[in-house]
Structure formats: C-alpha cells, structure tokens
Amino acid sequence: MVHCSVRRVIAPLSLFVAASPCDAHVAWSLQSGDGSDTWIIAAILATTILYAVGVSRLWRASGWGRGVRVRHAVAFLCGELVLAATLLGTLDAWADRSFAAHMAQHEALMLIAAPLLVQGRPLAAWTWAPTRGGRDRARRMIASPGLRRPWRWATAALGATTLQLVALLGWHIPAVFDYAAAHPAVHALQHATLLSAALCFWWAMRSPMPMQSGMTWSTAGVAIACLFITMIVTGGFGALLTFAGHPLYRGYGDSATMSALEDQQLGGLLMWVPGGTLFLIMALAQGRLLLDRGGVTRPVDAPTSAQ
C-alpha cells in the first residue's frame, strides 16, 4: 500500500520535472547539436528517478514519511525544478546576452536550488535506491577513509565556506569568466562547480542547526561566523561590480535597454543584496535557535544511510 501510494505521489512530479525544461530554448539547443542541455536533462531525470525509487523503498521498509518526510521530498523536487528552469529555460538564453541575467542564474543555483536539494535529504533517498547488496556496498564505500575524510572537510563549516568562496571568486575573475562564457564545456563546468560548492555549503549550514541535530557552542559559533564571512565577501564583490567605473567583462556589450556598465551594475546588485540578506537571516536564525535551546552537544559530521 505504501509503495503504491509513493508511486502515485512521486511519478507525476517526476514527469513534471522531465517535461518542464522542454521549451523552445531547449528544442533549439537539441536541434542545433548542443549536447549540454541533453546532459542536464539526463542528470535531472536520473537524480529524480533515483530519489523516487529510494524514497519508495525506504518508506516501504520503515513506513510512510519515515527517514525522508513528505516535505523533504517536495523540497527536493522543487530544487530539481529550479535547476531545470535556471539551466534550461528562458533565463539561460538571457544569460548569453546579459551579465545581470547570468548573475541571476548563479544566484538561483546557489541560493535557491542548492538549499532546496539539501533540504530534501538526497543521500538518505539515494542510499536506498540500489538493491540490498548495493546499499551495503554504498555504506562501506561512504565509510572508507578515502571518501569520508574529504567529505568531512567539504561539509564542515570552514571547509565548505572556503570551497564556496574560492569557487565563486575564482570563476568571476574577468578573464576566467569571459573564457567560460565563450566555451560551452567550460561554462558547464562553471555551473557544476558553483552548484557543487553551494551544496556543500548548505549541507554544512544545515547540519549544525539545533532544530535538526544539535551542536556545541563552538560549532555553532564557527557556522555563524562563516555565514557572516560569506555575506561580507560576496557583498563586497557585488559592491565592487556595482560601483566599478567601467565594464569588467568583455563578453557583454550595450543592449537596447541598458549599457554594458549598467548591466554589470545590476548584476552586482543581484549578487550583493539577495545573497547578503539570506546569509544574514541564516546567521541570525542560527544564533536565535542556539540561544533558545541553550546549546546541545552532538554535532553531525558525516552522512549516514538514514541522515
């Protein structure tokens, strides 16, 4: 009964994810021989199907809503839809012509899609997607030092913050940014890097939340400090773009609606204000929750099959 119910809930949503990117922009890309959209569609479909299969098996084994709640599944599917709309829709077409649209695309990937996907507890679902033997092998692989140690560094507050800031600032060096914009394969790598770094960051910010798992005062302080550091660095870079006296990126020129400098200034504002506001809210929320609960002592530092 549970298995059938899960299929009735998730299957239509999976089909919606599959259908949502198929607009005129994607159709043109596929007809023109651009394979990047094909890979994006395949990745979104594959991760969604694996998630649905994993949740189905998990709920069949432990009961409806156990391990991964319905709200987690909804968050994950919303994250996939944001990915599809960001990388395959009209915004992606605009990003080829507008620096501000390109910044909006990066903001959507890092500030909307990534936290939604993390909130969906994908590792718990994907771990249950293989057969029992496959799950046992996945657990042993995750527990191996070769994966566990890099994972712990990349999803710890300091490591994840460093990773995200290096990726963000590195890809926005004007020469690097212009090269990526002119080469589709490098552009795809840029988006994959930014999304991966953001996933690690939001995982690190999610794990120590008192409402989720508990944390020590020192762990909470590091997480809050990392949110403020991220806000300052990204806001500072956005301000630099906003107040620059000339365009820094050569790939975008004047358009019918705004000059290249105005386009860059709008892109800087998009990086400065939404991101800074979100990081500030998260930092204040974590501090408030910690004070309300008085701090607890069990930090989370690595993935498990149950998350």
Protein topology:
Blueprint: H1 2-19, H2 24-31, H3 36-62, H4 70-88, H5 90-95, H6 99-119, H7 122-128, H8 132-143, H9 145-154, H10 157-171, H11 174-182, H12 184-206, H13 217-243, H14 260-293
Please trace the helix and strand order, writing H or E for each element. Answer: HHHHHHHHHHHHHH
Task: Tell me the strand percentage band.
Answer: under 5%
Low-confidence stretches: 1-33, 208-214, 295-307
Mean pLDDT: 81
Instruction: Please give the share of residues in helix.
Output: over 70%
Radius of gyration: 20 Å
Number of strands: 0
Structural class by SSE content: mainly alpha
Overall 3D geometry?
A: globular
Largest sheet: none
What does this structure look like?
The chain has 307 residues and is mostly helical. It has 2 domains: 143 residues, no CATH class; 152 residues, no CATH class. It is 77% helix and 0% strand. It is built from 14 helices and no strands. Helix 6 packs across helix 12.
Top keywords for this entry?
mainly alpha, disordered C terminus, disordered N terminus, 2 domains, 307 residues, 77% helix
Describe what is shown at a glance:
With 307 residues, the protein is mostly helical. It has helices spanning 2-19, 24-31, 36-62, 70-88, 90-95, 99-119, 122-128, 132-143, 145-154, 157-171, 174-182, 184-206, 217-243, 260-293. The protein folds into two domains: 1-143, no CATH class; 146-297, no CATH class.
